[in-house]
Amino acid sequence: MKLLKDAILERGRVKDGDVLKVDAFLNHQMDVELINEIGREFHRLYKGQGVNKILTIEASGIGIACIAAQHFGVPVVFVKKTQSRNIDGEVYTSKVTSFTHQREYDVIVSKNFLNENDRVLLIDDFLAKGSALLGLIELVRQSGATIVGAGICIEKGFDTGGKLVRSEGVHVESLAIIKEFKDGKIVFED
Amino acid sequence: MKLLKDAILERGRVKDGDVLKVDAFLNHQMDVELINEIGREFHRLYKGQGVNKILTIEASGIGIACIAAQHFGVPVVFVKKTQSRNIDGEVYTSKVTSFTHQREYDVIVSKNFLNENDRVLLIDDFLAKGSALLGLIELVRQSGATIVGAGICIEKGFDTGGKLVRSEGVHVESLAIIKEFKDGKIVFED
Question: Can you state the subunit structure given in the record (chains A, B) (predicted)?
Fold first, then answer.
C-alpha cells in the first residue's frame, strides 16, 4: 500500500539496526486519516468473505481495528493482556511473548464474544516474530470460529513470524512488507 | 445521550452491587456503530473550540478516541501504561491507579506528540474515581498544552472522580451519568 509505505519512509525512523519506530502515526500518535485508508484497504482485500467480527489485541491494534471495522460494518473484539476483575464468566486463554517489553503475557477473550459461528478477521499493526498473531489464532481455534485471514499494517519480512503464521494455514495480507534495513534505510519487498 | 443510555440498560450488566459491565459493546467487544454516534456527540459538544489533538489512555479508550477523532479531523495520542523499549526520547510521566486491576501504573507520553501549542480533548470510556483522567490532566499540564475538556462515555456520578476533575477546572461532558444502582437496577441522572 503506497500511502502506508510513503508514511513509513517519511515519518518512520530506524533505530538500533532493525527497530522501526512508527509512533508518529501508527502506535502512539495515530493518524486517523491514514488509518482510515488502511481500513479501506483491508476491506478491499477481505470483503465478500463473510467477515462478521474483527479480532485484535490491546493496545495498538484497537484503533486500527475499530476504524477498519467501520468499513465492514462489524464489531471489534479486543483480546486483553491481563486477567481483569471485570472479565467474568469463562474465557479462552493463550500466551503471547512481547519482544518489545521482554515479557510474556496471558491473553484472554470472553467466550461470550467469540464462537463457532463467527468468521473472524485478525488485525494488528506489526508482524515480526508472530507471537501476538499466533496467540490470536490459538484463541480463535479454541472458540471454534473460522479465521478468514489476518490484516497486518507492517510485516518484517526478514523475521520469522510471517512464515510461522502462513505455515499455520492462515491467509495473511500485509500492507507494507520490509525486506531489510540496509545502512539504516528501509527496503520494502515489491 | 439516549442511544448510549439505552445500550447500557439493554446490554450492560450490574455485578457485585456497583460494578457496571459494558463489555458487550464498549470495552471488550466494541459496537463501532454506537461508538461512531458517541464520537459524533463529542464533536457536537466540543466543535469550534480549536481541538487539534485527542488524548486517551490505553486500552479501552483508544478505539473510542480514534473514531471520535474522525469527526474532528485530528490525530489521537494514546498514553501508555508501561515504559516500552520502543518509546525513546523524553517522555512526560505520571501515575494512575487502576481499581479494576488493583495496581498502580506509570503512564507516559512522548514529548514529541504533546506541546504547548496543542489544544487537547481528553477521551475515556469511564469516569469513576478519576485516577486515569487526573493522570492525563497531569501529563497535559506538564506539556504546557491547553485542556479544552474531557469527553467521557459513562460517569459514575455517585463516585468521587467527577467532582475531583471538575474541581481541577476541567470541563467534563459525560454522555451517561449513573446516579445510583438501586436493587441492581441502573438509575441515570437527568
Answer: Homodimer.
Tell whether A158 is within 8 A of chain B (Cβ).
no
Match 484472554 to its residue by C-alpha cell. A108
d(CA A81, CA B82) in angstroms, rounded, equals 13
Residue from A55, A156, A161 nearest A110 by CA: A55
User: Between A and B, how many CB-CB pairs are < 8 A?
Assistant: 132
> Which residue does chain B place closest to A14, by CA atoms?
B86
Write out pLDDT tens, residues B116-127. 999 999 999 999
| CA–CA gap between residue A19 and residue B176 (Å, rounded) | 42
Site of grid cell 470541563: B171
Phi, psi of A158 (to 5 degrees): -85, -10
pTM of the entire structure?
A: 0.95
pLDDT tens profile B96-141: 988 777 788 899 999 999 999 999 999 999 999 999 999 999 999 9
Q: CA-CA distance, B125 to B111, in Å (whole number)?
A: 24
In which residue are the cell numbers 490505553 written? B58
